[in-house]
Specification:
about 35% helix, oxidoreductase, alpha/beta, Ald_DH_C, Succinate-semialdehyde dehydrogenase/glutarate-semialdehyde dehydrogenase, 22 strands, Aldehyde Dehydrogenase, Chain A, domain 1, succinate-semialdehyde dehydrogenase (NAD+) activity, 13 helices, succinate-semialdehyde dehydrogenase (NADP+) activity, six-stranded mixed sheet, about 500 residues, Aldehyde Dehydrogenase, Chain A, domain 2, single chain
Length: about 500
């Protein structure tokens, strides 16, 4: 890997402003999912290392919270600037460890950085209240204060952006931070720490704990009385376990969990616009996103035309090593992930679905063929097929036919998940009626790309709670304090 700034690629964790190998001096290998080659051996930290990181964040908390909002904002802005100055190197690190194509990786770097830029400004816009008192001898007022030490556990599919999206509001609010990145993709998190240090963020404010054992580090984070909040992005199953563990110390939590996003195309929709939105929503990161389209519902009258247009659009997808310029579908993260997608498609076909289109995988010598799954289009999907109930997390477009608005609304809402949803229509009455009736935290209307730093990101039902981004995002990292002044 040829970097302009080779200091960004390193294998130590970052605790209390120092680069550390960990108590046991153990390491784990970070692999390129496209080739299986070892990129770097990274320090494998244990529970006692995690406790030291939490203690460092706790010790740094008073000094960081005491800075003025303008001082914190200036440091965060410098961090943002350094990320953008090193965007190309961060892109290459991300693609090499995660697999997504270079263009997508570059977009993720800018997307993650946008949250740091946004919350550098939002730090100045935390407001309290003056409340009318019940009598003239009292004055009532409300202030907001940093919640304290924040711990985060982030996934492998967006190793830069998911961390930035959590750290930015936490640091802006005056909290200190301990991050556990996914063991598959820790290098992007480490690189962010390199730039945070360079930006002048004080020792102990931002800490990275890399480990091959997420349950071990997670247990320390959830049980520590020094941690005031846990922010997690990942599966619903793991999220439930973490919530149970956090109950012992009554921590504040944010949970961004699994999804099962419907993508609904009504017969009055602009089909070209819908195809464009579907291609963005379904195939970004090879379908490995929590807001990725999972269930496609197309009204019967336009089904044939829609399938034909989608098949043609999918011919432009090229699967292979994400570091190659023409590739727009990279590898899945593991062979286990490929096996899951294969199983879902096989189950659907066995139960009557038809494969309409399947692309070829364009791998080079040295690539691992078993880490790739070809973009696939299947139709005739129904609710009895596993692919309608599980997150696919792969480049498979699964289409069902519907007849009425009432029917498709019931199907779309028939899931325990409620993160993202999408629908296409030209009927303005339906826009409001249907949008309000969908049981999801995010609704894309005639739009397939819905995430940005100015909008609240998060789900309902078993997709979690809390919001990231927007003016609401900083609230999850603050406590409300009511103060009553008497004797006036």
């Amino acid at each position: 890997m040829q970097l302009r700034n080779p200091n960004l690629l390193r294998g130590e964790s970052y605790i209390a402003g120092m680069w550390q190998q960990g108590e046991d001096l153990q390491t784990f290998a970070v692999l390129n999912p496209a080739t299986g080659e070892t990129i770097l051996n990274v320090a494998d930290l244990n529970d006692r290392d995690a406790e030291r990181a939490i203690a460092a964040a706790h010790a740094a908390k008073p000094g960081w919270a005491a800075l003025t909002v303008k001082e914190r904002a200036k440091l965060l802005r410098r961090w943002f600037d350094l990320i953008m100055e090193n965007q190309d190197d961060l892109t290459l690190i991300l693609t090499t460890e995660q697999g997504k194509p270079l263009a997508e990786a570059k977009g993720e770097i800018a997307y993650g950085a946008s949250y740091i830029e946004w919350f550098a400004e939002e730090a100045k816009r935390v407001y309290g209240d003056i409340i009318a008192p019940p009598n003239n001898s009292q004055r009532l007022f409300v202030i907001k204060q940093a919640i304290g030490v924040v711990a985060s556990i982030t996934p492998w599919n967006f190793p830069n952006a998911m961390l930035a999206r959590k750290a930015a509001p936490a640091l802006a609010a005056g909290c200190t931070f301990v991050a556990k990145p996914a063991h598959e993709t820790p290098l992007s998190a480490i690189a962010l720490a390199v730039l945070a240090e360079q930006a002048g963020i004080p020792a102990g404010v931002f800490n990275i704990v890399c480990s091959s054992s997420a349950p071990t580090i997670g247990k320390v984070m959830t049980s520590s009385p020094l941690v005031s909040k846990l922010s997690f992005t990942g599966s619903t199953q793991v999220g439930k376990t973490l919530l149970e563990q956090c109950a012992g110390t009554v921590k504040k939590t944010s949970m961004e969990l699994g999804g099962n996003a419907p993508f609904i195309v009504f017969n009055d929709a602009n089909l070209d616009l819908a195809i464009k939105g579907l291609m963005s929503s379904k195939f970004r990161n090879a379908g490995q996103t929590c807001v990725c389209t999972n269930r496609i519902y197309v009204q019967r009258e336009i089904h044939e035309a829609f399938v034909e247009k989608l098949s043609t659009a999918m011919e432009a997808l090229h699967t292979g090593n994400g570091s190659r310029a023409h590739v727009n579908i990279g590898p899945l993260i593991t062979t286990k992930a490929v096996a899951k997608v294969t199983s879902l498609v096989d189950d659907a076909v066995t139960k009557g679905a038809k494969v309409i289109y399947q692309a070829k995988v364009d791998t080079n010598a040295g690539d691992i063929d078993t880490h790739f799954y070809p973009p696939t289009l299947i139709s005739g999907v129904n609710k009895d097929m596993q692919i309608s109930r599980d997150e696919i997390f792969g480049p498979v477009a699964a289409i069902s036919i519907f007849d009425t608005e009432e029917e498709v609304l019931a199907s779309a809402n028939d899931t325990e998940f409620g993160l993202a949803s999408y629908f296409y229509t030209s009927d303005i009455s339906r826009v409001w009626r249907f949008g309000e009736a969908l049981e999801y935290g995010i609704v894309g209307i005639n739009e397939g790309l819905i995430s940005n730093e100015m909008a609240p990101f998060g789900g309902i039902k078993e997709s979690g709670f809390g919001r990231e981004g927007s003016k609401y995002g900083i609230e999850d990292y603050m406590e409300i304090k009511y103060m009553c002044l008497g004797g006036i």
